[in-house]
Design brief:
80 residues; 4 helices; 44% helix; globular; RNA polymerase sigma-70 region 4 domain-containing protein; WH-like_DNA-bd_sf
């Protein structure tokens, strides 16, 4: 799989790595070919540890309902 932004990070690595901080600068995700839903999932996976949906939503700048939908794997109609 492709290496994202020349950092050596691959999609699979992002799914198993737990060393990203909740204060991570997520701008590097904009340079990837991940869909908006996948970007949100990456952020949710690493920002959401022990946090309420409303706290995660505030950090990510999305609605608590969208956080819930992402957690449950519900297709979000606002994402193409």
């Amino acid at each position: 799989m492709l290496d994202y932004v020349g950092t050596g990070i691959k999609w699979e690595d992002m799914m198993i790595t737990s060393n990203l901080s909740t204060d991570t600068d997520w701008s590097f995700l904009q340079e990837t070919n991940l869909s908006p839903r996948q970007r949100d999932f990456v952020k949710l996976k690493y920002s959401g540890n022990g946090m309420k949906d409303s706290e995660v939503a505030r950090k990510m700048g999305i609605t608590p309902q969208r956080v819930y939908n992402l957690k449950k794997g519900i297709k979000d109609k606002s994402i193409k």
